Amino acid sequence: MDPLWPTSADGLRRRSSHMELRRNFARSKATTAHWTYDEHVSLSEHESQSSMRRRALLRKASSLPPTTAHILSALLESRVNVPQYASSAIDYKYRLKETNEREFFLELVKDISNELDLTNLSYKILINVCILVDADRCSLFLVEGPPHKRTLVSKFFDVHSGTTVRPSSSTLNSNEVQVPWGKGIIGYVAEHGETVNISNAYEDHRFSDEIDKLTGYKTQSILCMAICNSDGEVIGVVQAINKNPIGTPFTEDDEKVRLSACYSIRNVEICLCNEQMKLRCLLLLLQALLEVVNDLFEEQTDLEKIVRKIMQRALTLLQCERCSVLLLEDIDSPVRPFFSHFLTDSSAIRRFFSCFIFFLWPVVCVQAFVIFCGLGINNTMMYNQVKKTWAKQSVALDMLSYHATCSKVEVDRLKAAKIPLSSELGIDEFHFNDFSLDNDAMITASLRMFLELGVVQKFKIDYEVLCRWLLTVRKNYRTVAYHNWRHAFNVSQCMFVMITTASFQDVLSDAEILALMVGCLCHDLDHRGTNNAFQAKTGSALALLYGTSATLEHHHFNHAVMILQSEGHNIFANLSSKEYSNMMQLLKQAILSTDLTLHFERRTKFFEYVLSGEFSWTDEGHREVLRSMLMTACDLGAVTRPWKISKQVAELVTSEFFEQGDRERSELKLIPAIFDRNRKDELPALQLEWIDGICKPLYQALLKLNRKLQPMMDGIDANRKKWQDLCSSYQQTRRASPLVVCNTCIFWGKTGRYASKTQTRGQG
Q: Any idea which residues carry the catalytic annotation?
């Protein structure tokens, strides 16, 4: 039994069960944290110590490493030190030390020479020092803090010579021990730079036995050496405890091992210093580049100013005497002076960091600087291009606005004109003649409709603004066959007569009435005589701008908004912000609802509401669907007009569609399925399909909702009969002769096949 470990009858008893050993260890860790027996420390003496001081020391300087051997040695009653088996590497070093000293020192040098991590290096130094001096334990303290407030901080404390597991970083942080400068043996060595070799620690007044009392470990011999750099400055202290065999003092040869530690730590410090210097340079470079970015991107409008800033920053950042900036331009562009001299005065500009950065970071600095300068110049050039483009657009819009808006003479003439009554104009009847009024008369009739509906007074619409707006709306319709200003007026007249004669004025709000009337007049603004499918097929600018869903309807609405936003055209100017927003929403719904695709989606709901009797005038969703149906009914209102008018409108629609078919054939190389001019004699059959499939179901549902719409239903029935007669006559003619002359094509039977040239009966 080791004489250094006294026995006591009150000590812990040996346990043969591994389970009991684990339980005792857990219990001892929770209460005393590796407390071991010492005959020199009584229970009362221990209890008199401050518990907080004890916990701090135990937390900072636990003498037992986390190995099974030391845990068992702390728990066994016999106080027998369990043998510590060194790793193969440590055992190999011990054998080399005994057999081949040269190889041994070469192994030590290789072990620590390539290590640049200070923590790993400290651990390796302590292990090697333990081997060199045959010490039981070693500790390493490094100097930290400013010169006036230096302390010694342990990187590793009480490392055993036989340990094989390096403590984790979390353990190192929790077990860190700090020794004041000049206090104790370690502080004395650090302050004076001397080596202290003590054979009996308890005989030296500088020795503190607090750790021994808390851990039960007996310190005898101590070798404490200062680690100095090449300038003789102390950078650390290494302490070896209890030379083996126990009781043997350290020799003078043991004191020489500190040199390797000095050189290794110095090398690491140099590397760390270089890394810190590089990091500092990088941070300063980043700071300078950030200031460059902030400075350059503050000025994005003037190319000359930003180039001057770049040159000033280059002088400061690169520590150069002169710099110039060359911009790439078209060789045909006119030659103009930019800067007639170099910028050389950098003294007035604040310098960001020392000159050595120019030598350490020239390439990186220039590359980063050039990137940011390029971004600044490019953004400024793009801004100038955008500015020029905006100026061109502004001029173009101004020109378009001048040509797209009415003149002041027209406004003054209309404003002074006498507006006939609706009865005089004939606009208060369902059977209105669409071709009875000329362009100017349609403008005065539109004014009369707004006046009789009372929206001018209710919404405080300026009369001159209303006149200007109507004239401009008329001017923004193209001269196409059907979707022109006359069609827009006829749709609005149909809406007017439905609101007044059919008494929808009693159930619709004033805002809804105004939105519906404005929507009717604007629902086909800037129509090009082609449908949405043609826009999608050709990939027109409208299709790219608005997509393939309700392309033209979105364009009509945006065009209406553009007119309203033109100076002197806003008829909604006196509405509040909330009323204006609601009005624009109603207007958008009204115009978009003229898209037949959207109509097919909504009419199913409307038919269900009406046929089931569930339609509610108080339900906003029902009212929105009704407004959509009213817009479509007015848009298709020509089918309810007297036969002569309805037939003429149908021919205009067909003419416009055939023109689209001609364009599809010439531009897209497609044979149009419906809009084929060679099928124009099928117009009666097409009209019957149009009336039966789209028009008649809509007017029947509206008639069920409002019986005052009966004249419209009568008109559509009368027109259908006329088309049916034409279709029957056409079919009788076809049955009389299998070959029917059809202008430039011949339809054969029911298959619709045709010859490529005009033929007469009996040929072929």
A: 483
